[in-house]
Amino acid sequence: MSKQLSVHSNVCPFNSVPDAHGERVARLFREHNASLLRFLRARLRSDDEAREIAQEAYVQLLGLDQPEAVHFLQGYLFRTAANLATNRLKQRAFRQRSADLVFFELEHQDTRSPERAWEAKWSVASVYQALNELPANCREAFRLVRLEGLSSEEAGRRLNLHPRRVRRYVARALTHCLAVLEPAAQESPP
């Protein structure tokens, strides 16, 4: 059974870690946990999420393959926590956009009509089929930018592409999906 770390108090959960790296992390926790939590609370505006992200950062710190390669552990901890917080904020924004989209669709949809529900499912299936017809880089750029909410610069870094190329791929994917959906909408589902 795995032991869960807790950063909810100032009691150091790393005292049982026997190696030198564990001792460094324990000292880092004692000396800087309060400031790390303040830093994360300011970014996330949530005590619970700040504690959760801090815990993830400490776990990543303890899981380093070569801890001796990190010379400034405090900076590494705060950078890791900042990256995790940024990811959390992006996830939160994506969930909010998705919830807004679902609300908008439900508000403008006749939920009593099984035909309308079937048409919507058919349209989604058509979009998935259209996306699968695209090259992998184009499909992945679309997924990262339109579905995960990354900027074209962030998606470009992940895909090792120039941001301009990412924007072109996204435009190509949208154009292709619209080209598939427009004739399909006129024909209506089989």
Word description of this protein:
The protein has two domains: 20-90, Rna Polymerase Sigma Factor, Chain: A, CATH 1.10.1740; 114-187, Winged helix-like DNA-binding domain superfamily/Winged helix DNA-binding domain (Arc Repressor Mutant, subunit A), CATH 1.10.10. The protein contains seven helices and no strands. The protein is mainly alpha-helical and 190 residues long. Helix content is 74%, strand content 0%. It is elongated and about 65 Å long. Mean pLDDT is 79; it is low at 1-10.
Summarize the structure.
The chain is 74% helix and 0% strand.
How are the SSEs placed, and which strands pair?
Layout: H1 20-44, H2 47-62, H3 73-107, H4 114-132, H5 136-147, H6 152-159, H7 163-187
Helix pairs in contact: 1-2, 1-3, 2-3, 4-7, 5-6, 5-7, 6-7
Protein traits:
190 residues; mainly alpha; Rna Polymerase Sigma Factor, Chain: A; Arc Repressor Mutant, subunit A; 2 domains; 74% helix; elongated
- What CATH first level of the largest domain would be assigned? Mainly Alpha
Largest sheet: none
Task: Report mean pLDDT, rounded to a whole number.
Answer: 79
The whole-angstrom Rg is 23 Å
Q: How would you classify the helix and strand content by structural class?
A: mainly alpha
Number of strands: 0
Low-pLDDT runs: 1-10
Helix percentage = over 70%
The CATH architecture assignment of the largest domain turns out to be Orthogonal Bundle
Fourth-tier CATH superfamily name of the largest domain: Winged helix-like DNA-binding domain superfamily/Winged helix DNA-binding domain
Number of domains: 2
- In percent terms, what proportion of residues is strand? under 5%
In whole angstroms, the N-to-C terminal distance is 53 Å
Give the helix tally. 7
Approximate shape:
elongated
